[in-house]
Amino acid sequence: MWGVVLWMVADALCAIDTVRGFIGLDVETGLPLLNIHGLSTWGGLSGPAVKPVAVRMVYQAAQAVKIPVIGMGGIMNAEDALEFILTHPARPVNSGMMNDRFFLNVGGAGFDVMVLDFANAARKRLSGIGSYLYGVLRAISAFRPIPMHVEIGGDVVLDGHYMICSVGNGRFIGGGIPITPKADVTDGLFDIQLVDAVPRWKIPFYLPSLMMGTLFKHPPAHNYRASSCTLSSPGMRLQLDGEILPVEHTHFVCESDALLMHW
């Protein structure tokens, strides 16, 4: 079964749905209990009763394939869901350190910090991606390029004015925007995105690429992969996993296989 799934090049596997079953017979008439005018078929068993079968099958699937396995069947509360999560073996993932602060996802300075400022201010009226899009529009009108000194992996040294400087262990910010789309939490490297400053009127032309994770394909963007990175700028305000910090000099280090996670 699992070999067929892999042969089809599936992105993920869901297990399980309702289990096929026979509802039973009316002992007085001899007719199946699930029938319409004497015609019947198999029934289905679902709900809490199928959870033991579901957990077993999800466990076997997780052992057999290397794609994500989504467990379901008989989940009634958080403890049930946790049982399914724990069927997957714990896997090592990277974490990051910025100076003396731990982070898991993305740190950066520039346009995205301004967006976060405006988005946070709008959260009383908007939520999720809506507040972030509002922040994007407000940030366009207020944006000023950031002078930045950048050192990447000890080999690359850059000085310039940038619109975005992002260091990603994870990929997404702002409710699902892939700011560092090449990041992989298992490879021991950061995905580093630098985007040269452009005139404000040009920023909207790059927003669709930013939202779709293809900004790195455009000329203002520069993509690097490294286990360490330094950002320095006078008066810099940095966002680290959504928290805004005033810091003028930062040193990022990727801690390979620092955590074990069930995912």
Structure notes:
The protein is elongated. The strands form 5 sheets. Strands 7, 8, 9, 10, 11, 14, 15, 16, 17, 18 and 19 form an 11-stranded antiparallel sheet that branches. Helices cover 25% and strands 36% of the residues. With 263 residues, it is of the alpha+beta class. The protein has helices spanning 2-7, 51-64, 78-86, 111-122, 129-142, 203-212, and strands at 13-15, 19-21, 35-36, 39-40, 43-45, 69-71, 91-98, 101-103, 106-110, 146-152, 156-168, 172-173, 177-178, 190-196, 221-226, 228-232, 237-240, 243-246, 249-261. It is built from 6 helices and 19 strands. Helix 4 (111-122) crosses helix 5. Strand 12 (172-173) and strand 13 form a beta hairpin.
The shape is elongated
For the termini, the CA-CA separation is 22 Å
Q: What is the element string, with H for helices and E for strands?
A: HEEEEEHEHEEEHHEEEEEHEEEEE
Rg estimate, integer Å? 25 Å
The secondary-structure class comes to alpha+beta
- Calculate the mean pLDDT score and round it: 88
Strand count, sense and closure of the main sheet?
A: 11 strands, antiparallel
Tally of strands: 19
Per DSSP, the total helix count is 6
| Beta content | 35-45%
| DSSP helix fraction | 10-25%
Oligomer: single chain
Contiguous uncertain segments of 5+ residues = none
